[in-house]
Amino acid sequence: MSGYTIALIAHLLLFAYWLGGDLGVFYSSYVVGDPKQPLAARQTAAGILVWLDRIPRVCLILMLPVSLTLVTSLSLAQWPALLVYTVWAFAALWLVLLWRVEATHAAALAAIDALIRILVIATLVVLGISALRETGPITGAWVGIKLLLFALAISCGLMIRKLFAPFGAAFGRLATEGSTPDIEQAIDTSLRRTRPFVIVIWACLIGAAAVGVIKPAL
C-alpha cells in the first residue's frame, strides 16, 4: 500500500469522524438544553456532548498534516520532505496542547490554542488564494477552494468557542441550584447561538468533499 493510499484513507476517515462527531454533539445539545428532561439525563447528555466534541477537534488538527501529505503525493505542492515532517511534528504538539487544555481548562493554554488557530486560518487563506491564482506553492484551483473552506470551518469553531463560553457556568448553576428561568435562558442562548456556526461547518466539510471529488477548474 502506497503512502498516498494510506493518506487518502486517513483523509476520508477524518472527514467521516469529524462530521459524525459534530452530528452527535448537535443532537446531544438538544437534550442538554431541554428543561423538560430530568437533570440526570441532561448531565449524561452533557457528558456525551463533551466527549464527542473531542473527536472533531482531533480530526481538525490531523487534517493539516494528512492533507499536506496528500497534495505533496499528488505533486500539487512542491514541499521539501523536511517541511512535511515538521507539520506532522507541529500537529503532534498541538494535540498535546489540546489535551492539556481539556485536562486543566487553563486560560493561558486555551489562549495559545486560539492563537494557533488564528495563525492556521491566516496561513490557509493565503495558500488558498494563491492556489486559486496559481501563484503559490500549491497549485490547483480545487485545492485552493478546499483550503478556504477549511479556514472557514476553523473560524466557525472559534466563534462557537466564544459563544459557548457562558454555558459551563450556567450548567454548573443548574446542577447546584436547580432549574430557574434565568439559568435556562443562559443555557438556551449559548446553545442556540452556536448552532448556525455548526451548520456552516457541516456545509464546509460537505463542500470540501464535493470539491475533492469533482475537482472543478476555475
Describe the protein's architecture and organization.
- With 218 residues, the protein is an all-alpha fold.
- The protein has one domain (3-214).
- The chain contains 6 helices and no strands.
- The chain has helices spanning 3-32, 39-73, 81-104, 107-133, 141-177, 181-214.
- Helix 1 (3-32) runs antiparallel to helix 2 (39-73).
- The longest helix is centred in the C-terminal third of the chain and has 37 residues, at 141-177.
- It is elongated and about 60 Å long.
- The two termini are 33 Å apart.
Any key phrases for this structure?
single chain; about 220 residues; mainly alpha; 6 helices; about 85% helix
List the helices and strands and how they pair.
Elements: H1 3-32, H2 39-73, H3 81-104, H4 107-133, H5 141-177, H6 181-214
Helix pairs in contact: 1-2, 1-6, 2-3, 2-5, 3-4, 4-5, 5-6
